[in-house]
Structures are given as C-alpha cells and as structure tokens.
C-alpha cells in the first residue's frame, strides 16, 4: 500500500487506504466530484514537498494531482501569458519559461513541488514571490464542485500564505496563469536579494543574464540543502520548517543588534506574541510606532543555541547540517521524531527570545 512516506520529500507518514492518482484535468475534475459526493474527508497532494503527515494509517481520500500541460495563451504588448496545469513540476515549468526568453520566475528556480501548490503558500525565494506574476487560477471549488476562474487579487496571497492555506478558499487548483515579460536582451528582472546580487557580481537592483541567474540560484540553494538531490541528505526535508516571524518593531528592537530584521510595513500580518524576553539594545526606530518587522527564524534558532546538525538523543530527525531552518529525516525517522524536534526548537527559541516560531509546512494529524 502506498504511504505518505512514499509521497513526501520528508519521507514520513502512514499508509493510505484511499489513494487516487489523476494525470488529466478532466479525470481529476470527475474524480474529485465523485469523492466529494461520497462525503468522505479528502486532501490534495502534489509533490509532497510542503507536507508533514502523521504516522497513523490514513483513511482520508488522497487526491494526487499529476496533470500536465503548459500553454502560451496569448502574447500581447509587453506581456506573455502562460498557463500551466496544476501537476506540472514547478522547476521544470520555470526552466521552460526561461528557455522561451521570458523573465519573472528565474529567482524561483529550484523550488520543489507542483505549479498548483505554488499558490497555496505563495512560493517565494531570493526577493521574488509568485504573487508578482500570477494572473488567475483555474479552480474547482469545494463543496459546490463548480469550476471557476479566480483572479490573483482574490487569492489572499501574502508572506508564505494564501486564502487556500488559511482555509478561506477550499478546493483544488487545476491550473495557474502567469503574466511574464519577454526579455529580448536575455536579462532577468532586477535582482533585489543581496546574496544573489553578490553571487552574480551585480549591484542590488541591476539585471543579469537569465541563464546565469538560474545557475546562481541553483548553486546558492544547493549550498543550503534546498535543492532535492538523492546525493544530499540535507534535502530530505520540507524546506524551511519555520516561518520568518513578523513582530512589532518594538519587539524586534529588543533583540541583539546582530539580529537580521526587515521593515515590512505598518500592517500587522502573522503577529507573533512576544513574552518580552531578550536583551534590550539601543537601536533607533525605523518605521514608527505601528511598524512591523520580519525576523530571521534561522538566526533566532542559532542564537538560541541550536546548531546546524543538531538532533535529540537517539532521534533520526536532525536540523540540516547546511541550514538551521530545515528539519531533516536522516533515514528512518518517523513523523513523531520530526514533530518532537520541531517542538524542541519552538520551546527553546521561545525561552531564549520570547518569540514563538510557527511551522511553514502543512501539518496533517500532527500537533506541535
Ligand atoms: C528542499 C526544499 C526547498 C524548498 N524551498 C522553498 C522555497 O524556497 N520557497 C518556498 O516558498 N517553498 C519552498 N519549499 C516548500 C515547497 O517546495 C513549496 O511549498 C511547494 O509549492 C509545495 O508544492 P507541492 O506540490 O510539493 O505541495 P504538497 O506538499 O503536495 O502540498 C502542499 C499543500 O498544498 C496543498 N495542495 C497541493 N496541490 C494542490 C492543488 N493543486 N490544489 C489545492 N491544494 C493543493 C496540499 O493539500 C498541501 O496542503 C521547499 C521545500 C523543500 C523540500
């Protein structure tokens, strides 16, 4: 019997007794209708790279989305509109857009998973996120079974979140339409991320050749264990296990001066409650009383004394040896081992800094 351990990049999770695999959109729509009519509990899965599922046997109807197809819908003025079916491999799709000389997704090279799930947490990396290029999704709404087009403005796309992730929208993403820019001179979008700009030898805000940007992103990602590879045990993970917390500027300024922090605006987003601990330093306010700041979860973890490679005694779950933000399965870990280490990280960081980290992957049947 197939199990979640077979379908997820963390390689944990129990056997699935009700598994459905769909490779065409029409069979997916018909299959979902049938499952939904039966009233059974259900869930969707794409590449399984952002899912951590309990070790218990699952009776939930699992809808595995493996639909394929990319169409350039229209080319008009300065925009190329490209539609991809939900089961397309994300990185393969990115490579396809670049091969056509179209820019917009190059810094998102190497992110595992499917095109459909990219919407669920508004995937992002190296200064870009898909919210900047998504036009709309083709959506099968639950429980009505109606097939509708939803514009990007109604998807609640935010920092690693969306209306799908929060449960405001329920259903299946069937396909995603992106508006990208033709790049006649073969140059990328402006590079906004310091580390990527320096790897490319350009100033922040400058452009670089598309192929070079993709290679540099893949190399940076590999150095952090963030490209799936059978040779890299650090990639047996769900990517970043914790969200970068967003806190009030007042809380952020209480952290040591070396803590990385970014002003994200006056709108409170996922506000993280602080217990008020931490060393007070005399940093000037950058954004005023209502300002919110994003913190580095990786920095908070390391600052709390949890080192890269750390594992609890006897456990097969470990912090990645390349990146403090990833929890990895070193071989034969159970979901409970992953959850135990995650709980240890949350408690240790909360005790040291007063900040509670929230998990980034979708957890099914797992409590932290
Ligand atoms: C090594 C590694 C590096 C990563 N790096 C990044 C990164 O840089 N940036 C980033 O944002 N993410 C990153 N991730 C996380 C992950 O790759 C993304 O979240 C990806 O979009 C998940 O796609 P998936 O198809 O694997 O989704 P799954 O894990 O299969 O599913 C994730 C969630 O989406 C739901 N879902 C899946 N498909 C659909 C659909 N068609 N319709 C509705 N719901 C659906 C599932 O039910 C589940 O809740 C990384 C993960 C790994 C393992």
Provide tags for this entry.
368 residues; 18 strands; globular; Uridine Diphospho-n-acetylenolpyruvylglucosamine Reductase, domain 2; Uridine Diphospho-n-acetylenolpyruvylglucosamine Reductase, domain 1; 3 domains; binds flavin-adenine dinucleotide; alpha+beta; three-stranded parallel β-sheet; single chain; Uridine Diphospho-n-acetylenolpyruvylglucosamine Reductase, domain 3
What does this structure look like?
- Mean pLDDT is 92; it is low at 268-282.
- A hairpin with a 7-residue loop joins strand 16 (317-319) and strand 17 (327-329).
- Helices cover 24% and strands 22% of the residues.
- It starts with a helix and ends with a strand.
- The longest helix has 19 residues, at 335-353.
- The radius of gyration is 21 Å and the shape is globular.
- With 368 residues, it is α+β, with helices and mostly antiparallel strands.
- The chain contains ten helices and 18 strands.
- It has three domains: 4-65, Uridine Diphospho-n-acetylenolpyruvylglucosamine Reductase, domain 2; 70-223, 2-Layer Sandwich (Uridine Diphospho-n-acetylenolpyruvylglucosamine Reductase, domain 3), CATH 3.30.465; 246-364, UDP-N-acetylenolpyruvoylglucosamine reductase, C-terminal domain (Uridine Diphospho-n-acetylenolpyruvylglucosamine Reductase, domain 1, Alpha-Beta Complex), CATH 3.90.78.
- Bound molecules: flavin-adenine dinucleotide (FAD).
């Amino acid at each position: 019997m197939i199990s979640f351990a077979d379908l997820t990049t963390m390689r944990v999770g129990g056997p699935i007794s009700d598994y459905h695999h769909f490779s065409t959109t029409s069979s997916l729509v018909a299959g979902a209708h049938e499952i939904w009519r039966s009233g059974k509990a259900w869930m969707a899965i794409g590449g399984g790279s952002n899912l951590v599922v309990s070790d218990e046997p699952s009776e939930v109807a699992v809808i595995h989305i493996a639909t394929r197809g990319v169409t350039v819908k229209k080319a008009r003025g300065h925009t190329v509109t490209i539609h991809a079916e939900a089961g397309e491999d994300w990185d393969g799709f990115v490579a396809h857009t670049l091969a056509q000389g179209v820019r917009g997704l190059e810094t998102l090279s190497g992110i595992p998973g499917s095109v459909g799930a990219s919407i669920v947490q508004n995937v992002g990396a190296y200064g870009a996120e898909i919210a900047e290029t998504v036009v709309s999704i083709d959506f099968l709404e639950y429980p009505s079974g109606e097939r509708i087009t939803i514009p990007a403005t109604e998807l609640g796309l935010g920092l690693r979140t969306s209306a799908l992730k929060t449960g405001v929208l329920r259903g299946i993403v069937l396909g995603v339409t992106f508006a990208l820019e033709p790049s006649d001179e073969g140059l990328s979008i402006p590079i906004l991320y310091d580390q990527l700009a320096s790897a490319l030898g350009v100033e922040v805000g400058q452009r670089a050749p598309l192929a070079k940007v993709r290679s540099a992103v893949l190399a940076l990602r590999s150095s952090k264990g963030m490209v799936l590879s059978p040779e890299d045990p650090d990639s047996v993970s769900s990517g970043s296990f914790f969200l970068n917390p967003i806190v009030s500027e007042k809380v952020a300024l209480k952290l040591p001066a070396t803590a990385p922090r970014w002003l994200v605006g006056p709108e409170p987003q996922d506000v993280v409650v602080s217990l008020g601990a931490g060393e007070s330093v005399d940093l000037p306010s950058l954004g005023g009383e209502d300002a919110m700041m994003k913190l580095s979860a990786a920095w908070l973890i390391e600052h709390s004394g949890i080192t890269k490679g750390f594992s609890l005694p006897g456990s097969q779950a470990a912090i990645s040896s390349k990146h403090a933000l990833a929890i990895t399965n070193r071989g034969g870990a159970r979901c409970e081992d992953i959850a135990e280490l995650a709980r240890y990280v949350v408690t240790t960081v909360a005790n040291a800094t007063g900040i509670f980290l929230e998990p980034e992957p979708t957890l099914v049947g797992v409590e932290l």
